[in-house]
Amino acid sequence: MLAVAAVAFVLVAHLLADSTGGDATSSGPDGNAADESMGTAARQALAAGVRTVPTTPPGKLRFGLGPGLDSAQHSPVAPDLDFYSTWFNGRDDLSFLRPWKADLIPEVYRSGHGIHLIVWLDGTGAISTFQTPHGPACGREYPLSSSFLDDARELASIFTGPADGPALYVTLFTEFQTYPCQPNAWSASPETTNYYLTLQDQYLAALRIFHDGAPNARVSLGWGGWQDRWDDPMTGAGRSLFPHFADVMRASDFESFQAMGDDPNAGDVMGMTRQLGQYGPVMLAHFKSSSQSTWTSDLHALLSGDAPRQLSESGLFAFSFMDQDNFNASPEALAQARGAIQSHGVHAPR
Question: Whole-model pTM?
Fold first, then answer.
């Protein structure tokens, strides 16, 4: 079994000790879970260090494109983008990311473009029941492991850029609601609650790692974009899950979510922006549809008429296309995307 989230717990505890001059590592009666007031104080200390995202004019958005830095910079729409998105899906990806540190990443920053690192881990490592500082948890092990924090340190080193240069946006644990054995609900089981509590500790530890290792980093927790569709207060599901992550989101530099359904996504984008916009600036981190007709109608609904202004007023500052598949479906699709980006985008300096 992987070594799990004790490292994250210790790092968060050290943050509190640094801010209070005291010992923040005391356990509850069972010797596992931290005292609730200690966790709250540590998160408040982190919230005081939130980094602002670059100023975006009202009604404008910062557009990005993935799935990799190398492919995005050669896209026909690249000159009008503000940043390029790329992915980390597990430690095997470090083998191709490491060489980028010396050439591609500095090249992107020099071009005036930011970088968006998306960390998706629901396909990585074992799923099991294991012990955490909060008690037994059931779900994907690797995101809560000390191994992931080691990898986060290396990622910060790879993607770092000047503090006064283009931003490094980090969407951590995208679609994190699916990582426990029982998804989307806070209290589906005690093991689910413990998993989410430990994930929060791990997220805050990773946020600190990126802040320490990359002075241009801005970090967010990545939501699956379906969470606004329903509500179940009894289990903390649907919209009732958001308040359980309120202090974590307030400690984040920005908020993020994805939208990738074959059914219409525009309603999800608007709803998630309203929900997350209560906590900070919002990024649509990866937008795509396997249905070209859905993608076309979504793009029209979200990026035409008064919609960009409304999204901006609700908190959306950035919009990243997952890849170029929908662009490449037809010349009309490319023209639609390029027109929306040119009309509503903040362009990187050329």
Answer: 0.89
